[in-house]
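U., I forgot to send this yesterday:
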Amino acid sequence: MNERHGSLVRACTGDGLVLAERHYPEDDWRDPLSGGQAFYHCHKPGEEHGHLHLFMPAEPGAELTHLLGIGLDPRGLPLSLFTVNRQAASDADPRFNAWLEQFLRFYAPVIETLLLERNWDLEIPSQVAIDWGADLDKVQQQWREERGGTRG
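Result:
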């Protein structure tokens, strides 16, 4: 997606001006296989450019529930994972679906902990900062060590 769009944020929002509180894409992404939906939006500029909100039905045909938010920096790199306490997504680009699926698999243990720590009395009931680059480096290093040594 970076090759095609320049960043995950631009893949979500396009090349135009990004407006606060607007959904990108306007009608959200919809995954016909899982029934999930997602959208990107921002509130005001800062360290976090904006975030992806992910929704899934508990079972086929059920009402959507907010599963997770992914905070992104202006380059589109993930900064944080968080949950919210609100029922808060057009068909998704297959590359977006693939990226999102792999990202969720990569952070599955962290996401499980976040969901278990959710405090329903708070607007953002659980949140954890992530360093995606460092986390990827760590996994690659472990993989190299398991394969029989570290090669520069």
